[in-house]
């Protein structure tokens, strides 16, 4: 299920990038949108729409966001990905971001995520083949260059 979600997100990212010129942005931050503990996020901003892919120290994510405010500072969206500590089998979440200087400008990015994460029950040396779905609640903070 998650694998097909990642493929769909990648297809959306590529199609948006190839159809219209978009503003590329790079963020550094921590949280699920950044691939876990610490990571980098590459975003393409096209008007009110943003698609992104991120790679972190412990995972990766892809997502879409829609800017819903007149001042371009508030966005909601979705994110899917995986990280090795709490969501080895993947996660899917609704996201909210606040861009301190607007979605197209450099500045701080703060937000939260709510969704589901799947993790396997494992020992230090092997997986026990038990997968549990748990609630995902996360915060993220980053800086957009």
Automatic annotation (TrEMBL):
Secretion signal, residue range per the UniProt entry: 1-24
Keywords from the named record: Signal
Protein name: Outer membrane protein beta-barrel domain-containing protein
Organism: Pseudoalteromonas holothuriae
